[in-house]
């Protein structure tokens, strides 16, 4: 109470001289409370003083005297204008304070994100390929990034392939859209934000375009809008050094997202080793022999968080297999289940 009395005395002498929070700090008001609680307390004390003391000091003059009556009217008018001015200043001060606090919060979050990002591994052998399953950002599984990065270093991989469905685009899905889900803008922004950690960790990568990646392009096509109106996907997702391809053939292995069937079927039809995503519940390595030699077929599983609302259409079916794949020196396929 002693500190509050000092603050009220300060108001009597000088009025409001600083922001609510700075005044709270200056007079040690609610030292163990949050900044908002402290600011609110000082503001309430000020309003109480202004209504009871400040206003009385203006109207306590003898109004019987015509001269003083005119003075009171003038002062009351000035007092009203002063209250409006104070309010406008309070709003401006509060806005500036909020803006400063927001900038500081964003700066700390950016620094925190930078500190938590995994250092890229740049020593890998380019003939060893890390295959990252469907992510469907922003609905990927927490920890899957760290898991993939660990396998990259363990198997000394210098080539990175995202097998497709980098983003989910649930807001525009051909399945039923959750009416309580994120808006189009919010989901896209969250996907972009989350992909920045992947982009930092794997700055150079191949992305085989998946059916979810091309949903927006398909919707434009259906609407009769030229593709020239659409930005390149790497520009939208802020991943300029990633190479987005329909398919990627490297060291006699074909990497595709695989909407048209399974890796096993594709390998047998094309007489080539195939690595494929798309089918979340399938995770296997199969071998087949041709006149030219032995080929393999790999289904790499996925990296999604199956509990997310975006996968409501599939949650009554099989549980997805969370894993990633590795192809060593063109001939040794490996699957690593997520533990």
How would you portray this structure in words?
With 339 residues, this protein is of the alpha/beta class. It has two domains: 2-115, no CATH class; 121-337, Purple Acid Phosphatase, chain A, domain 2 (4-Layer Sandwich), CATH 3.60.21. 43% of the residues lie in helices and 18% in strands. The chain contains nine helices and eleven strands. The protein has helices at 2-14, 20-26, 35-59, 66-116, 144-154, 184-201, 215-222, 233-236, 263-270; strands spanning 125-132, 157-162, 206-208, 243-245, 247-250, 253-256, 273-276, 283-290, 293-300, 323-328, 332-337. The longest helix has 51 residues, at 66-116. The two termini are 58 Å apart.
- The CATH architecture of the largest domain can be given as 4-Layer Sandwich
Main β-sheet, in a few words? 6 strands, mixed
Helix content: 40-55%
Which stretches of 5+ consecutive residues score pLDDT under 50?
54-64
The CATH topology of the largest domain corresponds to: Purple Acid Phosphatase, chain A, domain 2
Cα-based radius of gyration, to the nearest Å: 32 Å
Give the topology string: H per helix, E per strand.
HHHHEHEHEHHEEEHEEEEE
Total domains, how many?
Answer: 2
Class inferred from helices and paired strands: alpha/beta
Mean pLDDT: 85
CATH class of the largest domain reads: Alpha Beta
Sum up the overall morphology in one term: elongated
Approximate strand percentage: 15-25%
Terminus-to-terminus distance: 58 Å
Number of strands: 11
